[in-house]
Specification:
The structure holds 2 protein chains of 2 kinds. Chain A is of the alpha/beta class. Chain A has 21 helices and 21 strands. In chain A, the strands form 4 sheets. A 9-stranded mixed sheet of chain A has the order 13-21-20-14-15-19-16-18-17, with helices on both faces. A 5-stranded mixed sheet of chain A has the order 3-2-1-4-5. In chain A, strands 8-7-6-11-12 form a 5-stranded mixed sheet, with helices on both faces. Chain B is mainly α. Chain B is elongated, with a radius of gyration of 19 Å. Classes of the chains: A alpha/beta, B mainly alpha.
């Protein structure tokens, strides 16, 4: 037996992943355990969980890998500061103590985290190599082109290459400071959201705006070539030397200072979001087309933070010559932990790989699970009124009726997902046909901005009826955006809708599943199949039998700023503190109306205030 | 794309398994190898100065502080 632990930590989204004899046994992000979103600290809880899941102790580990090379990163930092002397002094002063005390001493830190019981050496793989490994090795392809789009690793910001059998090789790169991820983050900062966290809000905001600044971005900020490579005019940015992403020159170019966080969103913010999104899609598509031309391969795999831009991914799938695209569900830095472990197994130990046409990510359900007995004990301890069902069939029948009656349901079962998306193990689900559901869920359940869209889950066998996708086409990891099918769109929207501005568009019923149809008629589709998620498939089939609709809303089981729930306790707390109507924990169904303990507004506010906004 | 990435780093005279059994190299030795391998000699004085500042910062927070100040 060969056990390999992969670790990503000390920047953001720390995580651990365990691979035993090439099989992914467990993977989890530290934030789920500590309840601190994007937790950057050593993933102590995640490491302990992974070892527990496999029944191993640290001395049983054969290899431990870290997802990037700290010395090379340090070299990049020093060289960048030298280039900007003396402008970068404040940033330098803040960064150096951390590096000298902790980040340069990773073997010491990791050994400490493994309770000094791991005796071997540590392996440090390149940041983009880790991303590339996380994209290719679990993919269903024997051969594929690889693209990693990211903020920055050591020096690389975008790489491409190819994977074949048990080897990957990255041939070309774009280097810091020229970075698609950092360009997107600059606009995230400028539109008043948190960098490394609020990027998905910019993506969600984009369809409300018009890309009227896109030409300005192309002409002033970027020198974009036909192959997707580019140089940025760094006189507009401050991220190399300062503590902000953009500078006064950037603010003059876009005619105003950055939006203050939590202030009202204006049409201009939406137009800025639409503009950077349009340019990002253009860069992604050009890169993909070039990589196809160079490699001549029909399959593409992707990872890196920008590969979480599912709108851009959808553009690549529809408009590039690649026939098949697979994206690592944990495409951000957390996935690097998995990448480094798989890289050690396949590439460094030269073990054979047999993809057999199916991905080996196991539905990305790689985290902790809780038995019905554990859940029952917890509910008893809390004094919660719950109904226990003897079979999954009875439970699904009951819950599907509650959903059809417009109840919002917290759905908790099986192993927690690895990656930023809730894929039906830690989800809040609701009726996608309900016109009021988007606002109800945003304002009363998630306590987040009303513009935020929700994603649909659809029975895979019906995907082509509701979305412009091929019959039986898969999107099990919710990483693709596809247009809602023409035949279910509201044909009577007319000119009023076209002329409506921004968030006003939400007042129009856009399709027969309005809660999951974004204002540009797009949807971030997740297909549900029996193999990856049998119980959710069963629930949706019941719902379909009752209503004729194979689509539900699926959003992550958390409130705004909170990491997705991990334990029954987290789920029950979230259920009590929000306007959620029903909580399903395994085969236990808890209905809010039956609970003795009802939460007042001050308790709710106290709960919400502990989470930092992004 | 504009630049070639470094050569495949998995090739080594010793096998990966052999290397993994060796003792973990200390920070200073590893940094020296890093500088030598990548020929980034310009980093040497910076590392030395940063190291010195780090040592001084550490010492000033200990009982040795009065002796350090006399150096300046």
């Amino acid at each position: 037996m060969t056990a390999i632990l992969g670790i990503s930590a000390f920047y953001h989204d720390s995580a651990a992943a365990l691979v035993v004899d090439g099989k992914i046994i467990a993977a989890a992000q530290e934030e789920r355990f500590t309840r601190v979103k994007h937790d950057y600290r050593f993933p102590q809880n995640a490491v302990d969980y992974c070892l527990r899941e496999a029944g191993l102790s640290p001395e049983d580990l054969d290899y431990v890998g870290f997802y990037d090379k700290p010395f090379t990163k340090f070299e990049r930092l020093i060289e960048t500061y030298l280039n900007f002397v003396p402008a970068g002094y404040r940033s330098f002063r803040q960064a150096m103590p951390l590096w000298l005390k902790e980040k340069l001493h990773l073997p010491r830190e990791m050994r400490k985290g493994l309770h000094s019981r791991y005796r071997g050496r540590f392996v440090f793989t390149d940041h983009h190599e880790s991303h590339a490994a996380s994209a290719f090795f679990p993919s269903p392809f024997d051969e594929a082109a690889i693209i990693t789009f990211d903020g920055v690793g050591e020096w690389s910001t975008t790489c491409y290459g190819r994977g074949e059998g048990n080897r990957i090789a990255l041939d070309q790169e774009l280097r810091f400071p020229h970075s698609l991820g950092l360009l997107y983050s600059a606009f995230t900062y400028y539109t008043g959201f948190r960098v490394n966290s609020g990027e998905y809000k910019v993506m969600g905001l984009a369809p409300y705006g018009r890309p009227i600044f896109a030409d300005r971005i192309r002409e002033q900020l970027l020198d974009l070539k036909e192959d997707g490579s580019f140089r940025m005019d760094m006189s507009y940015f401050n991220y190399c030397q300062g503590l902000t992403m953009t500078n006064d020159k950037f603010h003059r170019l876009f005619e105003g200072p950055p939006r203050q966080p939590e202030s009202e969103l204006t049409q201009r913010d939406m137009d800025l979001a639409a503009s950077v999104q349009a340019v990002t899609e253009e860069v992604m598509l050009k890169t993909a087309c070039h990589v196809h031309e160079v490699t001549g391969l029909k399959n593409l795999v992707m990872a890196g933070g920008v590969a979480l831009n599912c709108v851009g991914n959808g553009v690549i799938l529809r408009e590039s010559p690649f026939e098949n695209v697979w994206i690592q569900p944990a495409a951000g830095d957390a996935g690097g932990a998995l990448g480094t472990a798989l890289f050690i197994w396949y590439q460094l130990l030269d073990k054979p790989r047999d993809p057999s046409g199916k991905d080996s990510q196991r539905g990305s359900r790689l985290g902790p699970e809780f038995s019905d007995a554990e859940i029952a004990a917890f509910l008893k301890q809390e004094g919660a009124e719950a109904t226990h069902f003897e079979t999954d069939d009875e439970m699904c029948d009951y819950v599907s009726k509650l959903i059809a009656d417009e109840n919002v349901v917290g759905w908790f079962h099986g192993r927690m997902e690895f990656g930023p998306r809730a894929l039906g193990s830690r989800s809040i689900i609701g009726d996608a046909r309900s016109p009021k559901m988007q606002q109800v869920m945003n304002l009363k359940i998630k306590f987040r901005e009303s513009f935020r869209p929700f994603a649909p889950i659809v029975l895979q066998e019906h995907v082509h009826e509701y979305f412009e996708m091929r019959e039986g086409e898969e999107s099990p990891y919710m990483l693709m955006v596809a247009p809602v099918h023409e035949q279910i769109r509201n044909q009577e929207l007319g000119e009023d809708y076209e002329q409506a501005f921004g968030i006003d568009k939400l007042n129009y019923c856009r399709s027969s599943i309005p809660a999951v149809t974004h204002v540009d008629h797009s949807a971030r589709v997740q297909t549900v199949d029996k193999e990856r998620n049998l119980l959710l498939h069963q629930l949706m089939t019941k719902f379909y039998d009752q209503t004729g609709c194979p689509v539900l809303i699926n959003t992550s089981f958390n409130v705004r700023g909170e990491p997705i729930v991990c334990t029954p306790e987290d789920a029950y707390r979230c259920f009590l503190m929000t306007g959620m109507d029903v909580l399903v924990l395994g085969r236990h169904v808890i209905e809010k109306k039956n609970q003795v303990h009802q939460i007042d507004e001050s308790e709710q506010q106290e709960h919400l205030s502990q989470f930092q906004l992004d | 794309m504009t630049e070639e990435t470094p050569a495949d780093n998995t090739k080594s005279e010793k096998s990966f398994e052999e290397l993994s059994q060796e003792k973990q190299i200390g920070l200073a030795a590893e940094f020296w190898m890093f500088i030598k391998e990548n020929k980034i000699w310009w980093m040497l004085p910076i590392i030395l100065v940063l190291g010195l500042v780090g040592v001084l910062a550490f010492l000033t927070s200990t009982g040795a502080a009065p002796f350090i100040y006399t150096l300046f």
